[in-house]
Design brief:
Cytochrome Bc1 Complex, Chain D, domain 2, binds heme C, mainly alpha, two-stranded antiparallel ribbon, 278 residues
């Protein structure tokens, strides 16, 4: 850019002529480069978003367990103890909580806890998806408990009415019929469900964090859990089309943002090239 800008001040009349003949090709090459760069950026970001939404879903190995042990020893041990048996005044025992509870707590950013209080809020997750799996593998290998569900967590029987019925019966009293949550007693609260993905909803039911009851598979069967998830996510999607943080349609809405931004960038590039060519 500055290669041509540098001689802007010298001999404008002569330079102008030269620029007409050689500049034309250079501008066209420049425009092509900008176009290719813009397209690559758009394609690249779309691919990134699209793959990041896929579930990991691999069974845990010995390597996962020892990697999880490592993470636990640096991030969790001070509050939950060397043998997962808890530390008085810091954190509860994790014996029997299982990978489901670990997934819920760590993927929603509640753990590691930063400040003791009445309520552990949802935060930016500190560990990535595979680290969460590793922590879960380790904690489950020592203490047992329910595992993380795998595969498609939506109900295939396309009746969201069933899910709605179950939701109103079991969940709405705390989370509200529109999922926006509500305060509970003693400074606790039932949070909004708007950011929760399928797996977080499932593991919330399996683990019953804080005041939330555990909904074991005897109370609400796995198929019913899927119906509830399908109901929540379908309603969220229809209430807020293209909103962020919605697991299934996330990549689609992000792609639209990228398209808009990309087309915007292209238009800026075209205007810029046009202005320079004049
Ligand atoms: C500063 C202390 C602290 C740290 C660090 C911490 N926790 Fe916790 N953890 C707590 C407390 C307190 C609770 C109980 C309160 C709650 O559930 O909100 C808890 C609850 C949990 C639960 C739910 C237990 C149950 O009965 O379902 C899990 C699982 C958990 N922690 C995992 C972890 C993991 C994994 C880490 C490390 C990445 C971690 N915690 C780091 C204090 C801590
Ligand atoms: C007695 C009140 C109560 C009932 C009933 C209840 N929950 Fe909860 N729920 C809570 C509380 C409290 C939390 C927050 C726990 C925490 O922060 O550790 C929570 C958290 C959640 C979360 C995590 C949201 C997020 O993104 O942070 C999900 C998902 C969830 N509940 C789903 C459900 C579903 C589905 C049902 C019905 C099957 C249900 N809950 C029934 C009280 C309840």
């Amino acid at each position: 850019m500055s290669a041509t800008g540098a001689d802007d001040t010298v001999a404008p009349a002569r330079r102008k002529k030269r620029r007409r003949s050689r500049g034309g090709l250079r501008h066209r090459l420049g425009a092509a480069a900008v176009l290719i760069a813009a397209l690559c950026t758009m394609g690249g970001s779309y691919a990134m978003f699209a793959t990041s939404s896929g579930a990991a879903g691999t069974g845990s190995s010995q390597a996962d367990v020892s990697a999880g042990h490592q993470l636990y020893s640096t991030g969790c041990i001070t509050c939950h103890g060397a043998n997962l048996d808890g530390v008085k005044g810091n954190g509860p025992s994790l014996i029997g909580t299982g990978a489901a509870s670990v997934y819920f707590q760590v993927s929603t950013g509640r753990m590691p806890l930063v400040a003791q209080g009445a309520y552990a809020p949802r935060k930016e997750a500190k560990y990535n998806e595979s680290q969460v799996d590793q922590l879960g593998a380790y904690i489950e290998s020592v203490g047992g408990g329910p595992g993380v569900p795998t595969g498609d967590l939506r109900s295939s029987s396309a009746t969201i009415g069933k899910g709605g019925e179950l939701f109103r019966l079991n969940c709405a009293s705390c989370h509200g019929t529109t999922f926006k949550g509500a305060p509970l007693s003693a400074g606790k609260q039932a949070p909004s469900l708007n950011k929760a993905n399928d797996k977080q909803i499932y593991t919330a039911m399996l683990s019953g964090p804080e005041n939330m009851p555990v909904f074991s598979d005897n109370t609400i069967t796995p198929e019913q859990k899927k119906q509830i998830i399908t109901y929540i996510q379908t309603l969220k999607a229809s209430k807020d089309p293209g909103g962020n943080g919605i697991d299934r349609i996330g990549p689609v809405s992000e792609a639209i943002v990228i398209w808009v931004a990309g087309v915007g960038a292209l238009m800026v590039a075209i205007l810029w090239i046009g202005a320079r060519a004049r």
